[in-house]
Amino acid sequence: MALTNKTTLAQTNNMTVKPASSNLVSLLLIGLLFSIFGFVTWLNGTLIKFLQTACDLNNTQASLVTFAFFISYFVMALPSSAILKKTGFKNGMGLGLIIMAIGCALFIPAAQNRNYLLFLIGLFTQGLGLAILQTASNPYVTIVGPIESAAKRISLMGICNKLAGALGSIILGRILLDPLKHIDQEIVAAVQDKNVLLQDLANRIITPYLLLSIFLIVVAIFIRFSPLPDVKDDAGGPETQEQCSRPLSSYTYLWLGALAIFAYVGVEVLAGDYIINFGTYLGVPIEYAKYLTSLTLAFMLAGYSLGVVLIPKYISQEKALLLNVFGGIVFSCGAIFLGGKLAVFCLAFLGFFHAVMWPAIWPMAIKGLGHWTKTGSALLIMGIAGGAVIPFLYSRLADSIGGNLQEAFIVLIPCYGYILFYAVKGHKIGYKETKQ
Question: Cys-Cys with 289: which of 3, 158, 279, 326 at CB 3.0–4.6 Å?
Fold first, then answer.
């Protein structure tokens, strides 16, 4: 999802590092962590459809899957820095993995009792761990090799993230969603009690999440004894007198940028996590619909790869953002007004346009903050809560208009409209060139 390579380069510039024993081993370990980010985050699309059936939920209730997961970033963005100051970055990675493992383990009693609240607590816990893990892991992308090749390493991490997300969605989709082909007919036929059938369905999630929990613990132990370099948080570089005295509230473009991140993550989550439900709503059989989140990620991977080639050599980040926003608006209209598989394709193809949005918005919002860089970064991370709020509003709207999942995608348009405003004007409001 929205969580591809959210690296705060400006924050990393204030780090000092002890040499690593092996940059290659370090890079492979960080690649593994970014794969975990993608794998866990993009399971939500499968979970929405699965839990909606297993726990007998309406659209609004099902949207709490993404709400519980992404709201944790809002809660944990600021505390993460304080936690990492006490644990250190390397130990912080292990802590994040352990917390994620606890969240996955909570799915076991949740499934055994078909307790939706416990599922949500598990998702929220996973998000808390993931927030710490990302905050601790991102700086290493830059410091495990020469600064001149940092962009290539960031690109590699993004590819790891998306490929793992697509793979996780396919694997969990086959395990959890295949039984949905027949369960409605079995319930109607009353071959068994409905609760018995749904309990059998819920139990299917126990084994994969037990294995995932064990895997996260093993990785945490491995990271603890790995040759990853130590990262020490130092003071920032020189600043102008104006930067030192300027209050955070005066950086209007930062606050507007946090809202742009909020809108972007919201539309990204809608396109990636809600497309399975949308596909089945428009008549796509579940045996094909279960792959739609992976299809969206494939389009995002294509857009990301193209952006790596074109930006900034052939096109600036600002222009790329504008083009992709316009593309998002056009294909959103296709998802809303077209019919059948064509509408589903339009929603999936939004992934292509989402690929460069975070990398374009982030530097616009974080530039020139000086000693406020870390606080500004935390504010932008808090914007990830858009992945909780906007899908929830979408689901409430869908339920209020008779469960119409297609017309409710109208919420995409104002989100893209705001991102367009930020790309054209918002990132300039309150920004002042600094002279060192």
Answer: 279
